[in-house]
Design brief:
Main location (chains A, B, C, D): cytoplasm
GO biological process, one term (chains A, B, C, D): NADP+ biosynthetic process
Strand content of chain A: 35-45%
Radius of gyration of chain A: 20 Å
Cofactor (chains A, B, C, D): a divalent metal cation
Number of domains of chain A: 2
Shape of chain A: elongated
Oligomer: homotetramer
CATH topology of the largest domain in chain A: Tumour Suppressor Smad4
Mean pLDDT of chain A: 90
Function (chains A, B, C, D): Involved in the regulation of the intracellular balance of NAD and NADP, and is a key enzyme in the biosynthesis of NADP. Catalyzes specifically the phosphorylation on 2'-hydroxyl of the adenosine moiety of NAD to yield NADP.
GO molecular function (chains A, B, C, D): ATP binding; metal ion binding; NAD binding; NAD+ kinase activity
Structural class of chain A: alpha/beta
Largest sheet of chain A: 12 strands, mixed
C-alpha cells in the first residue's frame, strides 16, 4: 500500500475529471491518496488533506498533474521530504513531466510495481545578504535570475567564483542555472544545453553590453557571488532577484547574492523509454 | 555671424569650466550663443535664453557637450528645426559625438569656415493606439523597445510588416532600431550592425523563446505593426514601450504600435577624418 | 503563344513523367516548349533544343522544376536574358520555388493569362584580381563565400567598404550575401534575415576569432573589397572563393576580391497568395 | 638536482638567445637540461639529447618556450610520461603559458624551490573506426573537430551519447572540446566557456543548418559517437577529423568516431598569482 500525494494544476484540469479518474484508480489499487487541503475544499475531492508539511514524510511518491511549471513550483517542498515525482503532462511537451496525458495508467502500474528508476536533479540555493545580514533564502530547480526592474536598461554587477573575480558585466541581467534550467530561460539568452544528469552550474549574461561576454559553465562545487558595488548610476539601483520564476525580490546596490549547489535534490521517477535527447529533439526541432 | 545653440550635459561638465571656455571663444568669433534657460539660471552662464522652441529656427548649428546619450536626448527637438549637431564627447568614445574633448577648437574653426559636411540620419516614428485611438506618439534616433515589466518573464506579440503577418514571438521584448541604433541595444541583443549612412530598419527579438527567431532587416519604407492580441496569460498584460531609452509608456494587450520612418532627420556635422568604421573598431576591439 | 523554357533537375524527376505532363499541357495551350539539348537527347523529350544561349532571347518565361538550388544554378543565364522564372518545387519547401508540385496547373494558367507580378531580386558580381589583373568574374543570386581550404584553420583578411578600412578578421571565412542569400548560409553563420524585396548587402564572418565581430549590413551601392595582405602564416595561403556554392576558385594571399551589386537581376514570377514571411515561418518554425 | 626538458618553438626564439639564457641559469642551479636532438644539432645547443621518448621518464619538469600552441603540440608526449609543464609565453597572452617572457627567473626559482601546484587538465581520446576496425587514434588537450573538406558545404552526421541518439546535424562540422579547448575554436563557433578545473565535454556544431542546434555540455564520463550513415549526397563524402588542430585525417561516410575522456592528463605547473579569469578578462576584454 502506497501513500500518493496528488498535486494538481487546477487551471489545466478545471473540472478535476481527469484527476478524479486517476484518484479512483489509485484507490482501487489500495493506495492512500493525499491532496492539498485547498483543492479538496474547493472541489470536494475525496482524498486525505495535507494540512501541514510534516505529513509529507508519510508520502511514497507524488503525482504532479500539469506540466514542467507545476513541478518547478512544487520542487522545493518535495525535495525537502525526498519525495519522488511522477509528472503527468497536461499541456505542452515537457522536459520534466515525461508522461503524456493518455499514458497515465500503464505508467502508474509500473510505478506501483516498482519498475522505475529515480533520477536525481541538482538544485541551487540562493542567499541574499544586505550589509552582511541574510535577508532572504531560496531554493530552485531551474534558475536564479538577477535582472533590472522596468525602465532601468542596464544592470552592472561583478561576478566572483570561489572568491576569485570573474568579471564586471553591464547587462539586462544574468541567469544562474542548473542543468535542468539550462533548457529554460538560459536557452533563450543564448546559453548552452547542459545534459541533465550532470551536476554543473551555468552563468549566462542577458543582453550583455560587452560583445565578448559569454556563458561560463562551472562545476557544481563552485560558489558564485554577485555584488553591485561598482554600479555607477542611481537608476541601476532597481534590481530584482527571481528564483525559479516565482519569487521576485527587489534588492539594491548593497545586496550580495551567494548561489551554490543546494543540499536538496529533486527526485524524478523515470520509466524506461523516455529520455532527454528524445524530448530535446521534439522541443527544438532540428536537422 | 552664426547663432550657436549650446546643449550641455551638466553632469559631465559640472563646473561649466569647459563649456564657458567654448562659449567665450565662440563670442570672440562673433557668434551669438544660445542656451537652455534652466542652465543659464543655475549657472549664471552668460548666454541667450532659449525660452521657447520657436526660437530654435534662428539657430545655425548646435554644439552638444556630453556624449551620444546627450545627442539622442536632444535629437527630436533639433530635428524638428533642422539644426545640424556637432557633438563633443566628454566621456566614453561615441558613435555620434565624434569630436574628442581636446579637439574642440580646431574643429569649431572648421565649422565656422564651412569646412564640413552634413550627414543625415534616419529617425523612426512610433505611434501607440488603443482601440484605434492614438494615445501616444514619439520620435527616435536609436530605437523603440517593447518589453515586459518586471516579474512578467515573457511578452507575446505579433509582428506585421506592411500588413503582412511576419510571426508571433514569445520573448523578453523586441527592439526596432535605425542604423544609428543598431550599435546600441540591438547589438547587445545579438542584432547586426547597419552601416549608418543607410536607411533601413532592423527588428531584433530580445531573448526569444523560439531559437529560430532572428533579426530581420527591413527597408526604410516598410511599416511595422505590433499587436498583442494572442497573449494568453494575464501577466503578459504588463508591457512597456520605451522610445530612445527615455520615455517608458505602460501599455496593455489592447495596444497596437505602428513604427515607421519619420519625416524628421537628424543632421550630424561631419568633419573630415572621422569615420564610422574607425569608431567601430575602437569600440568593439577586434582582430 | 508563349515560348517557355523548361529547366529540369533530372535527379528530382528522374523519369521525366512529371515534366512531360507539364510539357504536354503547355503544348495544348499553344506554347512552344524549349529545353536544354542534353536533356532532350537523354530522355527523348519532345521539345525544342536550346543549342546556343542566344536563343534565350526568344523565351517568354522559364519554368524551373527542382528547388531553390536549381534556380540558383540557372540564375545568371536567365538574368542575362531577362527571363522571368517560375519555380516549381519538387523537394523541400523553398524560398524561391514557391509553387508546390501539385499546384502547377492552376498557377501556370494564371501565368499564361498574365495574372502575375515580377519580383526582381538583386544579384552580386564578384571579381577576383591578382596583381591588379582580373582573373575571374562571377555573378550570384545568393552569396560569395571566402573560406579556408581544409587543414588551414583560420583565414586572415581585411575588409574595405568604398575604400574605407572596416576591419581585419581572423575567421573560418566570410559570407557576402544578397537579401535572397541571407536565408541560406548566412543564417547558419548567425547572420540576420534581410527582407527579400530590399537591395542590401550583408557581410557575415564565419566563426570569427574575435568575439566582437558581427554581421554588417551595407547599402546595395557599397563596394566591398577583400584583401589578404596581412596574413601572417604560410598556411593561410590556401584560400577559396565560392560563388553561389557552385564554383570554387582557389586563390592565394595576392588576390583581391571586389564584390558589388550586379547590373543583372533575377526575375521571379510571383503569383498572388505566396509570400516570404509565410515561407519563413514554415521553414524556421517559431513561436 | 632536477632534470629539466626544454621544448623550444624556434620560430619564436630564432637565435636561441633567450633559451640559452634560461639553460645557463638552470645549469648554474645544478639542473641537467635536456633538449630535442634536432634542436641541439641545428643550433649547437649545449644540452643533453632526447633521442628516444623512453628517456622522458627521467624528466622532472618541462619548460615550454613558445605559447599555447607549443604546449598543445607537446601535450600528448608529456602527458604519457606525466611530466609537469611550465609554459613561458613568447607571443600573445596565453591561457596555458602563464609566465610572461620577462618573469622567467623569479618563476623558475619558485619551481626549483617546490613553491608551485600542479593543475591537471582533462584530455580527450578520439578513435576512428571503419567497418568496425580501428584505423586511427589520437589524444588531445583542446579539441577534436570533424569538418567538411573544401567545396563540400555541409556535413551530415548523427551524434550519440552513451549510445543514446542525440540528433542528426547538417553543418560545416562539429567541435568536441575539453574545458581547456573551450576557449579556443569552440568559442569562435559560439560555444560556452568551461571553467578549466572541471572535467566536462562540450559539443558545438559549426554553422549548423538548423537554427535550433546548440552547444551541449556533457559529463566527462559520457562517450560520444559520431556516424555519417544518413548522409544523402555524394559530396558529403569528403570529411576530415582534426585532433588539436594538428593531424588532419580524411575519412568517409563509413567512418565512426568515438570520443571520450583520455586516461592521460596534462599537468600544468601553477605558480601563485596567475588565474584563469584574470587571463580571460585580458583576452576577451569586457566591461
Amino acid at each position: 500500500m502506497k501513500n500518493v500525494y496528488m498535486i494538481i494544476n487546477t487551471s489545466k484540469d478545471p473540472t478535476l475529471t481527469y484527476s478524479c479518474k486517476i484518484m479512483d484508480w489509485l484507490k482501487s489499487k489500495d493506495c492512500k491518496v493525499y491532496i492539498d487541503s485547498y483543492v479538496r475544499e474547493c472541489y470536494a475531492f475525496n482524498a486525505i488533506d495535507i494540512e501541514d508539511d510534516s505529513e509529507l514524510d508519510e508520502i511514497d511518491f507524488a503525482i504532479v498533474l500539469g506540466g514542467d511549471g507545476t513541478i518547478i513550483h512544487s520542487a522545493r517542498r518535495l525535495a525537502m521530504h525526498e519525495i519522488p515525482i511522477l509528472g503527468i503532462n497536461l499541456g505542452n511537451l515537457g522536459f520534466l513531466a515525461e508522461i503524456e496525458e493518455h499514458e497515465w495508467q500503464e505508467n502508474l502500474e509500473k510505478v506501483l510495481e516498482g519498475k522505475f528508476e529515480i533520477e536525481t536533479r541538482m538544485m541551487l540555493e540562493a542567499q541574499i545578504y544586505t550589509n552582511g545580514i541574510l535577508i532572504e533564502e531560496g531554493f530552485c530547480l531551474n534558475d536564479v535570475v538577477i535582472s533590472r526592474m522596468a525602465l532601468s536598461r542596464m544592470v552592472g554587477f561583478s561576478i566572483y567564483v570561489n572568491d576569485e573575480f570573474v568579471n564586471y558585466y553591464s547587462a539586462d541581467g544574468i541567469i544562474i542555472a542548473t542543468p535542468t534550467g539550462s533548457t529554460a530561460y538560459n536557452l533563450s539568452a543564448n546559453g548552452p544545453i547542459l545534459a541533465p544528469h550532470n551536476e554543473m552550474i551555468v552563468m549566462t549574461p542577458i543582453c550583455p553590453h560587452s560583445l565578448t561576454a559569454r556563458s561560463i559553465v562551472l562545476s557544481s562545487n563552485d560558489i558564485v557571488r554577485i555584488t553591485f558595488e561598482h554600479n555607477r548610476r542611481s537608476w541601476d539601483n532597481d534590481l530584482m532577484v527571481t528564483i525559479d520564476g516565482q519569487e521576485g525580490k527587489e534588492i539594491n546596490n548593497d545586496a550580495e547574492i551567494i548561489i551554490q549547489k543546494a543540499d536538496l535534490k529533486t527526485r524524478l521517477i523515470q520509466i524506461e523509454g523516455h529520455n532527454f535527447y528524445h524530448i530535446l529533439r521534439r522541443k527544438l526541432g532540428g536537422n
